[in-house]
Write a structure and sequence with these properties.
Elements: E1 2-6, E2 13-23, E3 26-30, H1 35-39, E4 40-42, E5 47-52, E6 55-60, E7 67-74, E8 88-90, E9 96-99, E10 116-120, E11 126-129, E12 132-134, E13 136-140, E14 149-153, E15 158-159, E16 164-167, H2 173-194, E17 203-208, E18 218-224, E19 227-233, H3 242-261, H4 273-290, H5 296-313, H6 319-324, H7 328-343, H8 348-359, H9 366-377, H10 379-390, H11 396-403
Parallel strand pairs: 1-10, 16-17, 17-19
Antiparallel strand pairs: 1-2, 2-7, 3-6, 4-7, 5-6, 8-9, 9-14, 10-13, 11-12, 11-14, 15-16, 18-19
Helix pairs in contact: 2-3, 2-4, 3-4, 4-5, 4-7, 5-7, 7-8, 7-9, 8-9, 9-10, 10-11
């Protein structure tokens, strides 16, 4: 299957599907609050868009039984899909970062279909992803066989020995300089701690959002295998300060840690996110210390802050319930505590090296995480972890104390 995505400088983009044989139906995945229904319009071709069971489908046009081609005009409108990836992320330079996962269809088993992409930039723009950059990319697929981020816009990618970076042209110079030095350093440290190189040079995309609001500081980010993106918004980003610099480094290290975690994949969507997100926080802290950006006292203070947030976030509820209710501050903080406790005396990097090795092929679940925790930290610690995850407690701080003794 070939998917051709052509940028328009001042209107909807064109998205064309070409299948190897005629098909009766194609599942595009979850409808995600109807963003395709609002922003996709069928053009020439034998298919139309239809919704069923909270999914979007390509179905034959009226009067047809099957189709081999489908064409749509797609408005690149941003939409917040919460814990899913945004289809389009606008850059302050006028460019757009888009997520290919919302374009690649699904097989009946839920896995993504084999697809190659041709992405064509408007005149004067560039297409950038991993090591590929130019006016267009042809018959392309992610080197990880996964969905990917692709940037289309005017900014030049910057390639170093460690990574490729696309920074918003409107980003303050101090941010561009910090990313250029900190991101490669933390990536190099994580590679050493986890004793594994990535299959390809990693990719970072830095987008600037609305910089209004004096003192406002907003960071959002997402990671994919080999890539991560961050969007910075609020007036506080205009100038560097100790607080702003700390947020940029801490969150960049978190997203970078995900790149090494990605070799271990959850077995299903039911696997709790505190494992992955808490692990990234814990790995980021260890990498900050190992790279010299934090002292041991700063690492202890950061862990103490996570302990406090976890305890306050779980008063009267279990971690399992907190995650179900979307209490993400507690999920990240408690996940950090649980990862540190699970690691035992050898540390979080050693734990994740082993965890990745065990789960790289078949994936992982909560039982696999707790089993390794019991091996490394002992049965008493593993029992306390289960309590924090499942029991509604009046004094969660006491269980946390058992974990961090």
């Amino acid at each position: 299957m070939l998917i051709t995505i052509e940028q328009s400088a001042d209107g909807p983009w064109r998205v064309d599907y070409e299948f190897a044989r005629a098909v009766a139906e194609i599942d595009l995945g979850e409808d995600n609050e109807g963003f395709r229904a609002r922003n996709w319009r069928a053009q020439s071709g034998g298919a139309k868009l239809a919704q069923r069971d909270a999914h979007d489908f390509l179905t034959p046009a009226d009067g047809e039984k099957s189709f081999r081609e489908a064409s749509f005009l797609v408005s690149p409108q941003p939409i917040d899909l919460r814990k899913d990836y945004e289809p389009f992320i606008p850059m302050g330079d006028g460019g757009v970062l888009f997520y290919t996962g919302h374009f690649i269809p699904l097989k009946p088993d839920g896995e993504r279909m084999n697809a190659r992409l041709t992405v064509i930039a408007a005149k004067g723009e560039k297409v950038s992803t991993f090591g590929d950059a130019g006016a267009k990319i042809e018959n392309w697929e992610s080197p990880y066989k996964h969905p990917a981020f692709i940037y289309v816009g005017p900014s030049e990618p910057v390639q170093t020995e460690a990574m490729l970076t696309v920074s918003d042209a409107t980003a303050p110079e101090w941010i561009r300089q910090e990313i250029a030095t900190f991101a490669p350093a933390i990536a190099s440290t994580l590679q050493g701690l986890l004793q594994r190189s990535l299959p390809t040079k990693p990719n970072i995309f830095v987008a600037m959002g609305d910089l209004s609001g004096e003192g406002r500081l907003s960071y959002s980010g997402d990671a994919l295998p080999g890539q991560y993106q961050m969007t910075l918004a609020g007036g506080a980003w205009k100038k560097s300060s100790p607080k702003v610099l700390a947020v940029l480094r801490r969150t960049t290290a978190h997203e970078a840690a995900h790149l090494w975690q990605e070799a271990a994949r959850p077995k299903s969507d039911a696997v709790p996110e505190w494992i992955h997100e808490g692990g990234a926080d814990a790995l980021a802290g260890e990498a900050m210390l190992a790279s010299g950006y934090w002292t041991s006292d700063e690492l202890k203070a950061d862990l103490a802050a996570a302990r406090s947030e976890c305890a306050s976030g779980l008063e009267g509820v279990s971690l399992q319930k907190a995650e179900a209710e979307g209490r993400w501050g507690a999920v990240y903080a408690c996940g950090r505590i649980l990862n540190v406790a699970a690691a035992g005396p050898e540390g979080i990097a050693a734990f994740w090296r082993e965890f990745v090795q065990r789960s790289a092929i078949d994936g992982y679940d909560e039982a696999a995480f707790l089993a390794l925790a019991e091996e490394r930290a002992g049965a008493e610690t593993a029992d306390a972890m289960r309590d924090l995850v499942r029991i509604n407690e009046a004094r969660p701080d006491q269980t946390i104390d058992r974990l961090l003794k």
